[in-house]
Amino acid sequence: MRRVRAGDQVIVITGRDKGKQGKILRVLSNNRVIIENINMLKHHDRPNPAAGKPGGIIEKEGSIHISNIMLYNSAKDKGDRIGFKRLEDTRKVRYFKSDGEIIDI
């Protein structure tokens, strides 16, 4: 079980986009994530008349390493550390370490 999943609200803790918040769009296999409107890159695309594709400069999200983000705790209004614990019905869930609030339901 991973600490972060697609759809989680996170905050960037280091780098150029420090302090920005966003939703995780994808979790990549090499411990990197793509976050909505974070680490925007410009890609120069060549036109392809056969496919009817115009050229130009396209902005898209780049990946960011998982160690540079924290899950956003809306109750504390800041990033928070994550732990794992088992419930009585043997389900493994994530929780915020500061207040013990369970993330997964």
Provide a descriptive summary of the structure in words.
Pfam families: KOW, ribosomal_L24. This is Large ribosomal subunit protein uL24. The relative contact order is 0.21. A hairpin with a 4-residue loop joins strand 2 and strand 3. The protein is built from no helices and ten strands. It starts with 8 loop residues before the first strand and ends in a 9-residue tail after the last strand. It has one domain (9-48, 56-96): Roll (SH3 type barrels). The mean pLDDT is 94. It has strands at 9-12, 21-27, 32-35, 40-45, 56-61, 63-65, 69-73, 78-80, 82-86, 92-96. With 105 residues, it is mainly β. Strands 6-3-2-1-7-8 form a six-stranded antiparallel sheet, with no helix packed on it. The protein is elongated.
Overview features:
105 residues; mainly beta; SH3 type barrels; six-stranded antiparallel sheet; two-stranded antiparallel ribbon; 10 strands; 0% helix; elongated; rRNA binding; rRNA-binding; RNA-binding; ribonucleoprotein
| Total DSSP E strands | 10
Strand order of the largest sheet: 6-3-2-1-7-8
Quaternary form: single chain
Order of helices and strands, N to C? Answer: EEEEEEEEEE
Largest sheet entry: 6 strands, antiparallel
Low-confidence stretches: none
* Helix share, percent: under 10%
User: Would you tell me which CATH topology applies?
Assistant: SH3 type barrels
Radius of gyration: 18 Å
- What structural class should be given to the helix and strand makeup? mainly beta
CATH class: Mainly Beta
Q: How many structural domains can be distinguished in the coordinates?
A: 1
The total count of helices amounts to 0
Protein name: Large ribosomal subunit protein uL24
Subunit structure: Part of the 50S ribosomal subunit.
Function: One of the proteins that surrounds the polypeptide exit tunnel on the outside of the subunit.
Family: Belongs to the universal ribosomal protein uL24 family.
